[in-house]
Design brief:
The protein has helices at about 25-30, 50-65, 110-125, 140-150, 180-200; strands spanning about 10, 15-20, 65-75, 80-90, 95-100, 130-135, 155-165, 165-175. It is of the alpha+beta class.
Amino acid sequence: MTLSHPGTLTGRLVALEPLAADHRDGLAEAVRDGELWRAWYTSVPTPDGMGEEIRRRLRLQDEGSMIPFAARRLDTGALIGMTTFMNIDASVPRVEIGSTWNALSAQASGTNPESKLMLLRHAFEVWDCPAVEFRTDFLNQQSRAAIARLGAKQDGILRAHKRMPGYVRDTVVFSILQHEWPGVRTGLEARVLRHLERRGENLPPQLG
């Protein structure tokens, strides 16, 4: 059993395109914006390592455990990062949204909440997932706060869960359950609308 690929997910601020090899140069430029790979508590590819990271994610896609995307900002047309459905268990079905990074200049632009809105909507409303999971390093306070702002609730902490360069990390696990999705969706839609209004757009987001 497999979950069907959603194809490109297009909102008002960002489009999530199925990851492909020809995204390499644009993503290498995006990761230089803020030198994101230098944060020791994250696993963000370097510009020179972007091609291998794309190949790794596509291998996982071929194996059925990941559906990776490249994120493109719609106001500039620039690629700004990557995100995925990962650790896919089609028998439930259950997915994790993760392996996400965004260029520094795209942060606080509304593109991340809209990306999460589109991914969560597909997981809950198309695949009928009973739960969607998020995981992050216990030491990554920025990521933990961002996940909580989505409306996800902390399930627990996996102690000494994953080996990182120089240490073994504790992993914090969050989830959103299907019955919580309507409230989470309303909150994310409001966040996207605020960004549209700042740009002078007063219509609610039309998400594809």
